């Protein structure tokens, strides 16, 4: 099972691999019901909006996702924890030749629910890379 830190790092690894596979259900299983995503230039996003974006109709050609997360710090205090990381993401939409690249830092808050660490809040500070 591992330490709390190892479990939280495992959530991040599972999230990234599920994103690469287009596995929305696995990703949704890694977050709390009241999750909030803070993204630059837009209103906060909750679980329902995330789900509607992540779930693609059957047979859809999914974009290609590639990402690298460099966890900088994990701190655990009881049933809450935070993690900050440097994240680089490349998304190639279906049929596109070039990827859309973003890079920056994230700050994530996790909550232990029934013994399992889940993402509760996420502040994503990714920016477009210079071309």
Describe the structure.
The chain has 131 residues and is α+β, with helices and mostly antiparallel strands. The chain has one domain (4-128): Nuclear Transport Factor 2, Chain: A. It is 24% helix and 47% strand. Strands 1, 2, 3, 4, 5, 6 and 7 form a seven-stranded mixed sheet that branches. Strand 3 (64-77) and strand 4 form a beta hairpin. The model has no long low-confidence stretch (mean pLDDT 94).
Task: Output the keywords.
47% strand; Nuclear Transport Factor 2, Chain: A; 3 helices; alpha+beta; 131 residues
How many strand units? 7
- Output the helix-strand order: HHEEHEEEEE
| Structural class label | alpha+beta
The rounded Rg comes to 15 Å
Helix tally equals 3
State the distance separating the first and last CA atoms.
Answer: 43 Å
Q: Into which percentage range does the β-strand content fall?
A: over 45%
- CATH secondary-structure class: Alpha Beta
Average pLDDT value?
94
Write the layout of secondary structure elements.
Blueprint: H1 4-21, H2 24-28, E1 31-38, E2 45-46, H3 47-54, E3 64-77, E4 80-92, E5 100-113, E6 116-124, E7 127-128
Parallel strand pairs: 1-6
Antiparallel strand pairs: 1-2, 3-4, 4-5, 5-6, 5-7
Quick structural summary:
This protein has 131 residues and is an alpha+beta fold. The protein has helices at residues 4-21, 24-28, 47-54, and strands at residues 31-38, 45-46, 64-77, 80-92, 100-113, 116-124, 127-128.
């Amino acid at each position: 099972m591992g330490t709390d830190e190892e479990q939280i790092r495992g959530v991040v690894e599972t999230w990234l691999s599920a994103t690469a596979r287009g596995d929305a259900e696995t990703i949704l299983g890694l977050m709390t019901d009241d999750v909030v995503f803070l993204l630059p230039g837009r209103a906060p996003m909750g679980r329902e909006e995330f789900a509607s974006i992540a779930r693609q109709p059957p047979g859809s050609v999914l974009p290609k996702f590639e990402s690298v997360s460099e966890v900088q710090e994990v701190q655990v205090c009881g049933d809450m924890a935070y993690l900050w990381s440097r994240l680089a993401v490349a998304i190639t939409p279906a049929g596109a030749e070039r990827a859309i690249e973003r890079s920056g830092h994230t700050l994530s808050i996790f909550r232990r629910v029934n013994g399992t660490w889940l993402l509760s809040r996420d502040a994503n500070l990714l920016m477009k890379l210079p071309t």
